[in-house]
Specification:
It is built from 17 helices and 13 strands. The chain is an alpha/beta fold. It is globular and about 65 Å long.
Amino acid sequence: MPKILLISSHYPPSNLTATHRVRLLVKYLPLFGWDPIVLTIDESYYEEKLDLNLAAILPSCQKIHRVTAFAVSKPRLIGDLGLRAFFQLSKRASEIISSTQIDFVYIIIPSFYLSLLGPILHRKHGVKFGIDYIDPWVHFFPGSEKVFSRHWFSTKLSKILEPIATKRASIITSVSESYIHPIFERNPRLKKTTQLLAFPYGWDPGEKEAIAIYNSNTQLFVKNKKLKLVYTGAFMPRSVSILKEWLKCINNHIEEFNDVEIHFIGTGVPKSSAIRTSITDIAKEYNLYGKVIFEHPNRISYFDVLYHISIADGLFILGSSEAHYTPSKLFNAFITEKPIFAILHPNSSASKIIEETEWGLTCLYSEERENEFNVETLQQFKLWKHKTMTNSWSFNKEKASYYSAKQLTEKLATALNELV
């Protein structure tokens, strides 16, 4: 069985996005003839709250190597964990490749700097490698308009480092095609040498059973006669304008929302210079906080997220003004079997998935469509509300199965088989 070394800055008990990408691949790769080995950073260096329940569901037979990292300096000059552990990861990866017959190295980014391990290991050991883009690397970082700021340097550096990292890559994958195509436009030589493959996170049907028996100690809202929608995860800078239009729509038609609560969970405390107010502050501008809009900014565990979606009436997804944004949280609706109400960019691949699976309704937002947005969104929400209250959703579970982590991992394994 060929061996694949997966390198990621985070892995359970971390609950960050990259964690879920890696853990699902590692679970199902053996079914398709690949033996996965994980190389990550020791959890004692993670700055986020650990999710021990997530770590508990990892198969005991998994091969996991963890390395140390340099401490954060004061003042905080280098915050990126992948960069602080770059030397340690490079050294341990070389040791693993030297002692084990590694057939392929697969690097999950962010941390974006980890992608540079690919060409280093390829040059030293001749091993083929691929890079998986969970987020776009070369793009406008919020705050980078300020010359010589940390974000300005990050934007400049990404344009320099990406061609170096991708030059010898055998395959580049991503959660969305909209992430991949700009890479090949910036680096046209890759079209002749590098495969591309886009596949979303997917979902694990086995987690339905886990959430059914999960006993949560966290209760962020109580059951009452109101319809409850749950939004989970960080609140992004490019979502502010969409949120304001959505709240404006609610405020203009408040009679349709008197029996509705929308709970934003795990949004975090705003740190970016591009977000100077929280969801709470924005909702207060429209006199909606505590009436329709509620915010619980602290992150909660993965199974607590699933639990709150399962006791709510639906999952709310608020997209971004950037077309490439593909929210992985939509797959939580498949696990909990709850309908989605989403506001997304017209080019977001998530809208296609929701439409294909008939797992909810989507409203499309862009600056060009602002005039139509209020009318269309209200109509869609009234329809969503009716279908939810009458329990008349008919989810296409066969189509949803195409997006299972098992099916998507098979796509990756098939591509890898062609490379080694």
